[in-house]
Amino acid sequence: QVQLVESGGGLVQAGGSLRLSCAASRNIFSSNVVAWYRQAPGKQRERVATITSHGDTNYRDAVKGRFTISRDNAENTVYLQMNGLKPEDTAIYYCVRLTAYGALIGSWGQGTQVTVSS
After folding, report:
1. Contact 17, 66 (CB under 8 A)
2. Nearest 5°: CA angle at 91, between 58 and 48?
3. Residue of higher predicted confidence among 19 and 75
4. How crowded is residue 56: how many other Cβ atoms within 10 Å of its Cβ?
5. Are 36 and 95 in contact (CB under 8 A)?
6. What is the pLDDT of residues 51-75, one digit of tens each?
7. Which of 21, 36, 59, 91 could crosslink 48 through cysteines, CB 3.0-4.6 Å?
8. DSSP secondary structure letters along the chain
């Protein structure tokens, strides 16, 4: 069972930056779609960004131009660079693998907390 471990969250002021990391126990990113999701208190979990095995990326409108997803196959790690953070970005962030059709592979991890103060 491949495990994904999220890290890099923290408390930051509005306008600040954070880089989240998603580390895998073995090389799986070169053959899978990887997605970052987030869940704010009292809200549904939402997809933030995805990256395919070919390096194609996709973002939800609310983070376009501020967030960048990238992948380092040698390090078995996917990153989410978050710039220009806003209080509404406050959430627990999770990374998961998806099939080509968007179905979840494996289970949700513990995530990493991002808190943006105004």
Report:
1. no
2. 5
3. 19
4. 9
5. yes
6. 998 899 999 999 999 999 999 988 8
7. 36
8. ---EEEE--EEEETT--EEEEEEESSS-GGGSEEEEEEE-TTS--EEEEEE-TT--EEE-GGGTTTEEEEEETTTTEEEEEE-S--GGG-EEEEEEEE-TTS-EES-----EEEEEE-
